[in-house]
Design goal:
The chain has 720 residues and is of the alpha/beta class. It contains 32 helices and 19 strands. The chain has an eight-stranded mixed sheet, sandwiched between helices. Helix 21 runs antiparallel to helix 27 and helix 23 crosses helix 27. The longest helix is centred in the last third of the chain and has 24 residues. The structure holds adenosine-5'-triphosphate and magnesium ion (MG). Adenosine-5'-triphosphate binds next to helix 4.
Length: 720
């Protein structure tokens, strides 16, 4: 079926032309099947189709029909921010010119954000939508007509899954007429998902470019259909890579640690560089320059990445700065970079196809469970990255066997094996504590029966007996009552001001309890930076650094020296003490950040990359904001100013004296310090300086000098 026919049949103006310009002329078979099942007539749908199967287009057509024909609004929910930006940019570029107002919302959980109501198509993360529902953003219930759940298989993830199913149940409760489209990888129990959502199911193994999957051993790839192909002698990764590059393809390699990604990239780059032409080298030099300069002060990792990029190879992992990851993705899509070595984080939903995907590792190490097998679903998502529509006739995905005996196992388990069943993770106390409080605090439930009634709409209740849920909900309510977040008046449940605030701040109730305990412990004098940072590092909302063997001593000494600064007593129990040390280590990392320690040193001392720092900084400033609001409610006045100041300092990674300068756009911690050293300490000083004077300050240069001049002169400046 042609795209044009679909658009004409449902009277969607302008869309066929846009899609045709992009080379999208006719529907893929699963897309056609989705339309045949009534998705354009408003039926709910679960679309379980492999990677790159074109799931988004079905959602696009549905959303656009609703927006352009019926004046409805669409909400496109994704699990990750990077994916939100990718989708937002794509939708805006395609449909903005048709008058569709496309918006994005990912951060800032503390508001109802009325501005969002003006968009026709809003791309948002699941956490953002959940927080909007807590603020009872009315437009969500009144005008949203289509909800898309992208990458819905993440319902299986213990961290993100519960939020996803709760928000789905809530959206359907407040807006029973809403159409739900769930886009999923191929999973074992897609039927179950469809039953839960009262949806039609389209399930298919179809791919736009055929995928050949196999296992590499002893110089050959053995494919699932029995075909064998000789590649050659030598180290597996390098011969598999060069083989594809020589034929003009690109290679994506998955390994299980960041360190491996870096070493593999670095060692391959020495060989890949030989295959590059002069023009490519020049373009790669420009990309390299940008990735090296992304932080303002290049760390060793930045330099290594730049060095690899110059040779046509990159590594990609969560330790990189978001700008660096984007540079790498763009250069790979543009066929400039020939090889990317990534950790599995890249596998989720980003559109980065390669002719050959090589999966080297199928085990990974986690702190809690030691070395574990990577789930089939994840490995198959990685393999699914192979095959670039438009460029390749087929894609190839290869697992590397480390012994002859493994060939069979990998083939049966991962290549031919069926992915795991999705299982709801909502039934745990940490997940329910948050969502039960939200139910009561946002006024969605005023009795235990209401809470349970709501929970009936979740995937959990669809999979398990209500009895199981009832037990946990009651335990959680007892906890919330004991901690003064919920009050019972006969049958009625009421949220206390403390409970309401905790829910509105979008923090775990346990975080609220721990923060309250710390804040109430403030006695004499103002709390210190370390004390406040440690307070937020204790909460379950903060990710904690791992305390390595041999590090105990260093942090024990620190605790001994600075014990007065902590807002809670140092625990005596050895196990608790070990946790405490990990919290202290995390707090120390943030303290170094706000003391303007060079990123390279933070990296060396704490083992965190630029991307980790940015991620933790973001969480920390949100938690400091939350602590500030709690201190206000609890009337802990002494903590208010220090918390406010620290939140700003953490955001920028600066000492207090630089807070004025970093408000300028384009000025981060490094440039601000350089300006300060050159005698420009306040905005007033910048006003008085000439562009030439400013441009001569290290790392500033003429462009930035002009921009900050413009800002202080008020043309782009609205004041602090
Ligand atoms: N009918 C079509 N004809 C041509 N190209 C198409 C068609 N449908 C989708 N595409 C293109 O295919 C690519 C992959 O589509 P999409 O991102 O929707 O995959 P997906 O199913 O969401 O995969 P993933 O599981 O990786 O998220 C996109 O670049 C899209 O523009
Ligand atoms: Mg997708």
């Amino acid at each position: 079926m042609r795209v044009r026919e679909v658009c004409e049949k449902w009277g969607i103006p302008g869309v066929a032309e846009v899609l045709e310009r992009e080379g999208i002329l006719s529907l893929y078979p699963p897309q056609e099947e989705a339309i045949g099942r009534g998705v354009m007539e408003g039926k709910n749908l679960v679309l379980a189709v492999p990677t790159a199967g074109g799931k988004t287009l079905v959602a696009e057509l549905c959303m656009l029909r609703s927006i352009l024909v019926e004046g409805g609004k669409a909400l496109y929910i994704v699990p990750l921010r990077a994916l939100a930006s990718e989708k937002y940019e794509e939708f805006k570029e395609r449909y903005g010119p048709l008058g569709v107002k496309v918006g994005i919302s990912t951060g800032d959980f503390d508001t109802a954000d009325l501005r969002l109501a003006k968009y026709d198509l809003l791309v948002a993360t699941s956490e953002k939508v959940d927080s909007l529902l807590r603020h009872r953003a009315k437009w969500l219930a009144d005008v949203v007509s289509v909800v898309v759940l992208d990458e819905v298989h993440l319902i299986n993830d213990p961290g993100r899954g519960p939020t996803l199913e709760v928000l789905t149940a809530r959206l359907r409760q407040v807006n029973p007429k809403v159409q739900v489209l769930a886009l999923s990888a191929t999973v074992r129990n897609a039927e179950e998902l469809a039953e839960w959502l009262g949806a039609e199911l389209v399930r298919s193994d179809w791919r736009p470019v055929p995928l050949k999957r196999g296992v590499f051993w002893d110089g050959k790839i053995i494919f699932e259909d029995g075909e064998k192909r000789k590649i050659g002698e030598g180290e597996a990764l390098s011969i598999l890579t060069l083989d594809t590059l020589r034929e003009g393809g690109q290679v994506l390699i998955f390994v299980n640690t960041r360190k491996s990604a870096q070493t593999v990239a670095s060692s391959l780059s020495e060989k890949v560089v030989m295959l590059l032409g002069e023009e490519e080298r020049e373009k790669l030099r420009q990309v390299a320059k940008r990735v090296e300069g992304a932080l303002g002060e290049p760390t060793r990792t930045c330099k290594l990445l730049a060095e690899c990029v110059r040779r046509g190879v990159a590594f990609h992992h969560a330790g990189l700065h978001a700008d660096q990851r984007k540079e790498v993705e763009d250069a790979f899509r543009g066929n400039l970079l020939k090889v990317v070595c990534a950790t599995p984080t890249l596998a989720a939903g980003m559109n980065l196809p390669a002719r050959r995907v090589v999966v080297r590792d199928y085990r990974r190490y986690s702190e809690d469970f030691g070395s574990t097998l990577i789930p089939v679903l994840e490995i198959q998502q990685m393999m699914g990255r192979a095959g670039r529509p438009k460029y390749d006739r087929y894609g190839e995905a290869v697992l590397i066997a480390k012994s002859e005996g493994e060939v069979e196992v990998l083939m049966e388990e991962y290549v031919k094996g069926e992915p795991e069943r999705l299982v709801s993770k909502l039934g745990t106390e940490p997940a329910l504590r948050t969502h039960v409080l939200a139910c009561v605090a946002s006024g969605y439930a005023s009795t235990v029966g209401d809470v349970l009634g709501f929970m009936e709409g979740t995937f959990f209740s669809h999979q398990f007996e209500v009895k199981t849920m009832k037990g946990v909900v009651e335990r959680v309510l007892d906890f919330l009552e004991e901690e003064g977040m919920v009050r019972k008046e006969g049958e009625r449940l009421l949220a206390t001001p403390f409970g309401e605030l905790v829910s509105r701040l979008y923090i775990d109730p346990l975080s609220g309890v721990l923060m309250r305990e710390g804040l109430e412990g403030i006695s004499k004098g103002e709390p210190t930076t370390l004390g406040l940072l440690h307070l937020i590092c204790r909460t379950p909302d903060m990710e904690r650094l791992y305390l390595g063997r041999g590090e105990e001593m260093e942090f024990e000494n620190l605790v001994e020296e600075r014990w007065k600064e902590f807002l809670v007593p140092v625990p005596e129990d050895p196990e608790d003490f070990e946790f405490f040390l990990a919290e202290v280590k995390t707090a120390r990392m943030l303290e170094s950040w706000v003391e303007e320690v060079h990123e390279e040193r933070i990296h060396e001392e704490f083992g965190v990359g630029a991307g980790d720092i940015r991620r933790m900084v973001e969480t920390a400033s949100w938690l400091l904001h939350a602590a500030h609001e709690l201190a206000r409610l609890l009337k802990v006045k002494k903590a208010l100013r220090p918390l406010r100041k620290l939140e700003e300092r953490v955001k920028y990674g600066v000492k207090e004296e630089l807070l004025e300068l970093v408000q300028l756009s384009g000025i981060g911690r490094v440039r601000a310090r350089n300006l300060w050293k050159a005698g420009y300490k306040r905005l007033e000083d910048i006003k008085r300086a000439t562009v030439e004077q400013l441009a001569s300050v290290p790392t500033i240069g003429p462009e930035t000098a002009k921009s900050i001049k413009r800002q202080v002169e008020g043309r782009e400046w609205s004041g602090i």
